[in-house]
Amino acid sequence: MPYDSSLDAFAAAIVDPDRPVPAGLIGPDGAMSERRFAVYRNNVVAGLCDALSAAYPVTRRIVGEEFFAGMARIYVALTLPQTPVMLDYGAAFADFIGTFEPAMSLPYLRDVARLERAWVEAYHASDATPLEADAFRGIDAAQLPSMRLALHPSVRVVRSAFPLVAIWQTNIDEGAPGFIDIHARSEDAYVARPLAHVEVRVLPRGAAAFIEALAAGNTLADAFESARSTDARFDLSQTLSMLMNGGAIIGWVKQ
Predict the structure, then answer these.
(1) What is the 3-state secondary structure of 179-237?
(2) Which of 7, 120, 156, 231 is disulfide-compatible with 191, CB 3.0–4.6 A?
(3) Is 141 in the same domain as 253?
């Protein structure tokens, strides 16, 4: 394989030990320094793997240190950072897990990683002031269906066919995780940081579709229809109360 001095070749060589040292990299003696580049490569790869380990502690605990280290190493080899901000790295890790053949025996693992990513994004989201719980008292009820609600920047929803929040909760602490029947029920997770701490909770039936519709800019009426089409048992009053009391609503627009 011929040497290539482009930045792309340099970046690819950083995570691929089978690639040659990029042209132009020389040591103090003026000769190409494979040893120095190998040390630099190992440091970069180790740093990226450490970033994944820190961002996905529950995923790591479920599969174990050795399995996670191997999985992370393969992800790093396939996925270079797109920005200099390490917080952004690993955004596609959950999607990678969903295609990683050795992890297929844990069908819920991808959703756990999605929840952990949502937690990180919520934690670092912009601050905003939630509305007071009585903010809607002076609004004409006839205007409510056409209103569009503004959600707190930290609000995230993670849908899952598995008891996702229960799996996450039982593995987030250092104690021995308890048994969970992964086929017992499905759980959609709500993640938000309206104040100082990130909150994770199970959403009521249909609420995930409702929140996603609001986040997309739909009116309350349209969001309600989206939720009801997902689950006819959707409770609008319960969900709105949860969002208001949880500090998830920061404003509205009336048409």
Answers:
(1) CCCCCCCCCCEEEECCCCCCEEEECCCCHHHHHHHHHCCCCHHHHHHHHHHHCCCCCHH
(2) 156
(3) yes
Q: What angle do CA 34, 86, 114 make, to 5 degrees?
A: 120
165 shares a domain with 81: no
Whose CA is closest to 119, among 87, 95, 151, 147?
87
Give the span between the Cα atoms of 158 and 73, in whole angstroms.
26
**Domain extent for 133:** 127-255
- Taken in order 103, 104, 106, 109, the sign of the CA dihedral is positive
Alpha-carbon span 163 to 179, nearest angstrom: 12
Instruction: Identify whether the C-beta of residue 91 lies closer than 8 Å to the C-beta of residue 67.
Output: no
- Using DSSP's 3-state secondary structure scheme, residue 157 falls into strand
Is 226 among the domain residues? Answer: yes
141 and 96 in a common domain: no
- Distance, in Å, from the CA atom of 167 to the CA atom of 190, rounded to the nearest integer, reads 14
Q: Determine, yes or no, domain membership for 120.
A: no
Structure tokens at 52: 């994944």
Q: Is residue 116 in some structural domain? A: no
Count of CB atoms situated within 10 Å of the CB of 89: 21
pLDDT tens digit string along 42-98?
667 888 999 999 999 999 999 999 999 999 999 998 888 888 787 889 999 999 999
Instruction: Give yes or no: residues 57 and 157 share one domain.
Output: no
| Domain tally, the chain | 2
Residue 159 inside a domain? The answer is yes
| Phi, psi dihedral angles at 122 (to 5 degrees) | -65, -40
User: Which pLDDT does position 15 carry in this prediction?
Assistant: 62
